[in-house]
Every structure is written in C-alpha cells, then in structure tokens.
Design a protein that fits this description.
alpha/beta; four-stranded antiparallel β-sheet
C-alpha cells in the first residue's frame, strides 16, 4: 500500500512538473514569437547626441524586404566628434513597433572613402510653359553640376523626371540614373518648356513617381516608373532628389487639372515625406522664395534643404549634397522585421550605449506596398540564422 501511495505521489509530482514545464514552454514560445518579451527600457534623457540620418527598406524594397537599413550617428556633445568602435550589436538596441527586431549587422562607416561616397541623384523638373527661359538656365546649371560631380571622387549616377499637371513619360522626358555624364548632359539639355501656364502642378506625384520601387503598382496614378524602365537604385548609394519648380503643387483635396490625365493626386505632402523617409531619399528643392512655406517641410523633413532659384551654378546645392553623401551616417545597422504587412507605417526606437553615455531616437518607415511573402519569410529565416 505504501509503495502504491509513493508511486502515485511520484506520478502526480512528475505530472505537475510536466504541466508547469509545458506552460512555461508555451508561454516562452508565445512570448518569443508574438513580440511579448520584455523590451529594453526607454532612455529618459540622452546624455550624448544621437541622430538617425537615414532609414528604409531601400528603393529596391521589393527585393530586400524584410531587411531594413538604418544609418545612425552617435556623437560626443563636447566636441561633436563621432563616437568610434561601436562595432558589436550589443551597443545598439533596435525595437520595431511590433516589439521584435533582430540586428544582424553593424557596420561602422568610418572615414569617408571613394567606395562609400555613392549617390544616385534624380532631378525632378517642372517643364511647363511658365518655366520658359528659366528652364534653360536651370538645365545649364544641371550640366555644370554633372561636370563638377565627374571631377569629384563621388561614385554617382544622374537621371531626371519631368512633370506638369501630369507625369511626363514621352521620349526624352525622363532618364533613368546613368553614370554616363554625356548621356545625361545631352538629355537634360534637350528639355523644353510647354503646356501648363495655369497655376499649381503635380510635383508631389512626380516625386513619388521617381521614388517608387519595382512592384509598387499602386504607388501613384501613372504607374511605376521602374516597371517600364528598370529604374532601380543602388542599395549602398545615398538617394538624392532635386526638385526644380516655379510654382506650388496640387493636393488630393485640390487635384485641379490632374483629373484630366488621371483620377487625381495620390499623396499629400506628409504622406510623401513618410514615403521618402521610408526609402532613404533626401529631397532638395529649388523654388521661388514666395513658395518657401510650401516646400520647407518637404526639404527639411527629408534631411535636405530649400534653395532659391538664383543660386549660382548649384554651388551651394553641390556643397550641401556632397556633405550629405559623406556624412550620411557613421554606422549602418541592418536588421530583419517579422511584420510583412504591405504598406504599413512602422515606428522604430533605436538606442545606443557607449562609455560616454546613452541616447535614443525614433524614426518611421513604411513597408513596401507589394510584398512577396514567400521571399520575405525566406529572407527573415535566413536572417535569424546569422
């Protein structure tokens, strides 16, 4: 009888342990895969300077997603010097809004060299009649800009998109980024002004037209530029747009003549800024000072600048863009997100921990509008194995 009682107690004890273990295992697995783990605490006060200078799925996000790339710059507030030797993932926390992000590579940008001074630069040019002789002046300056780049150590490509109320797609009205300086100079020099002459144009959709990645079929009403021209950007290159215009823009609430060409304007300025930031594009603007209030957010919120059209030979623009290329970020962080929801806006919290202090910053990115789930899952699982 005693042996039977003892055996019963042992069986009950083992059963209890097994049940508790199963509960713990289930709870742990649920925590791991539902994003329910304990997140690193927020940093109440930054004790060093920390800036996120670029973020996105890349303009080839359809190919790269769910890999996300961040450029960050932690600096000593005493002398503005970049804090060096943060080469391990332990120095950084990257938290996606779903509570789960996995850093897979930390790359220090280090000293600037020719190999990492890469830029894909696209001019977004208003070619309506009101531009007139001003367009000739600006295209000449664009050619000078190209010559200056050719003499620098920047690994560049240049292209352009043109627009009025519509996004202009006829022959000679657009050029995919090319490293052939003469091809660019000839093509941009042949542009002429026509049409328009009636107020706002469609700058915002033209910008999105240049930005949209392959597969983003619903990105803008005119369809993806890339789908019919293989208009792709290099993953390692800084992405720079230069908008040249003399007027303000249509909006979804005030589409105006855009309705003649297609169903309306797709993006508000705020939406376009979010898309540019999600794909790492800095959008410089050359526009009359009378329209500065219309374009300040577009330029400044994408990490660029606004210029008056009288700027001689794009010298100031070139200096600013050159600095943007060389100081884009002192560290590059690549991580995998496990949320494959198309066209979803995410919030990233990035923290850095150094011997001089700690800091954090937040930034938004938007996942691609078209996601190949099988490809994304395969890439995510490969990332987890690293």
């Amino acid at each position: 009888m005693r042996k039977r009682k003892l055996l019963t107690m042992i069986v009950l004890g083992l059963s209890t342990i097994f049940m508790v273990s199963c509960d713990l295992f289930t709870s742990t697995m649920d925590s791991l895969f539902s994003g329910g783990f304990i997140l690193p605490p927020t940093i109440s006060e930054n004790t060093i300077d920390f800036e996120i200078t670029g973020v996105g799925t890349g303009l080839r996000g359809y190919d790269n997603f769910p890999s996300i790339t961040l450029f960050v710059s932690p600096t000593n507030p005493e002398d503005d010097s970049v804090i060096s030797n943060l080469v391990e993932a332990d120095f950084f926390d990257v938290i996606d809004d779903n509570g789960e992000a996995r850093p897979i590579e930390i790359t220090p940008r280090g000293s600037v060299t020719t190999s990492n001074k890469m830029a894909d630069i696209v001019f977004v040019i208003d070619t309506t009649g009101s531009m007139g002789s001003y367009l000739t002046t600006m295209t000449n300056k664009a050619q000078d800009f190209a010559d200056t780049l050719a003499e620098s150590d920047i690994n560049y490509r240049l292209g352009f998109v043109t627009f009025g109320d519509d996004i202009r797609k006829d022959e000679g009205q657009r050029l995919a980024p090319t490293s052939d300086i003469e091809t660019f100079k000839t093509a941009v020099g042949a542009l002429s002004a026509f049409g328009g002459d009636d107020g706002p144009e469609n700058q915002i959709d033209a910008i999105d037209y240049a930005r949209a990645g392959a597969g983003e079929l619903t990105s803008n009403p005119a369809g993806s530029f890339q789908n019919d021209m293989s208009f792709l950007y290099r993953d390692a290159a800084a992405r720079i747009f230069i908008l040249i215009t003399d007027i303000d823009y249509h909006t979804p609430d005030n589409p105006g003549d855009v309705l003649y060409y297609y169903s309306g304007v797709s993006n508000t300025v705020s939406q376009e800024i979010a898309k540019l930031n999600s794909t790492g594009v800095s959008c410089y603007v050359v526009a009359p000072t009378s329209y500065a209030s219309d374009y300040e957010d577009l330029a400044e919120d994408t990490g660029a600048a606004l210029f008056a059209p009288g700027t001689d030979d794009f010298a100031d623009i070139l200096d600013t863009i050159g600095e943007a290329i060389t100081t884009r970020g002192d560290y590059m962080i690549t991580f995998m997100t496990n949320d494959f929801t198309p066209n979803k806006e995410h919030t990233l919290r990035v923290a850095v921990h150094t011997s001089l202090g700690d800091a954090e910053a937040e930034v938004n990115y938007t996942s691609p509008a078209v996601v190949n789930y099988d490809r994304a899952l395969e890439a995510f699982e490969e990332g987890l194995d690293k």
